[in-house]
Amino acid sequence: MSRVMKTAALLLGLAACAAPAWAQEEPKLKDGHFPFEGIFGTYERGALQRGFQIYDEVCSNCHSLSLLSYRNLADLGFNPDEVKALAAAKQVSVNGTERPATPVDHFVAPNPAVTAAFAAKPPDLSVITKARDGGADYVYSLLQGYTNPPQGVTVPAGIFYNEVFPGHQISMPPPLQPDRVQYADGTQASLDQEAHDIASFLAWASEPELERRHRLGIEAMLFMIILTGMLYAVKRRIWSDVH
Model confidence at 212, in pLDDT bands (50, 70, 90)? Predict the structure, then answer.
């Protein structure tokens, strides 16, 4: 091991030892019981649409979804006219000219003047459930993990205590609270419901092909079962005279 690597390892070890016990605790994630989990899992369109509403009304002020286009919203169950209307509600700049967005445009990024006010740039959420251990459960738990610090623990001004976030100190203020949005389908917007819906939407954004992949896997398994049966029947037929 080189001297540089030894020094880095030593510094990391010292940092871990210096961190208080409460900051080293493994986060305990809540189980969201998401319907898209497992080999037969599928997305629930109502949850995806509600999750998009939360992203659009709350999260999009700070976080981008740069890998998605508005036309992708058709996968959530929105019809073509609804997709056009959702896109047209946003403004995009083309050659210095502002115009309403169209379905082929990528999701509009947050206003730079807003994100510049943060000490750390808010991350793009396109693949956030793939980039974090725990996936959708992590997002679901994080959004409900804000609480007062334990007795004897203090956090700097402008920082918030979160039971799930690594180190428990996060600069993002609590983005959700009960009835933060008025759901278009009339669903009661409890904190748990909002967290579940936005986690579902971000899971879809990270892996929109999940349902197609699951269907392909099931079809492949059925094909293998049928093929195995046919090969066994042929084997019995060929070797029947020998026995």
Answer: confident
Read off the amino acid at residue 135: G
Per-residue model confidence (pLDDT) at position 94? 86
Rounded to 5 degrees, what angle do the CA atoms 5, 6, 10 make? 115
DSSP 181: S
Domain spanning 20-68+107-206: CATH superfamily: Cytochrome c-like domain (1.10.760.10)
The number of angstroms, rounded, from the C-alpha of 160 to the middle of its chain's C-alpha atoms is: 21
- CB-CB contact of 201 with 55 (8 Å): yes
String of DSSP letters for 58-99: TGGGT---TT-BGGGGGGGT--HHHHHHHHHTSEEEETTEEE
| pLDDT tens digits, 23-60 | 556 678 999 999 999 888 999 999 999 999 999 999 99
How far, in Å, CA of 63 to CA of 115, rounded?
A: 8
Give domain limits for the chain: 20-68+107-206, 212-237
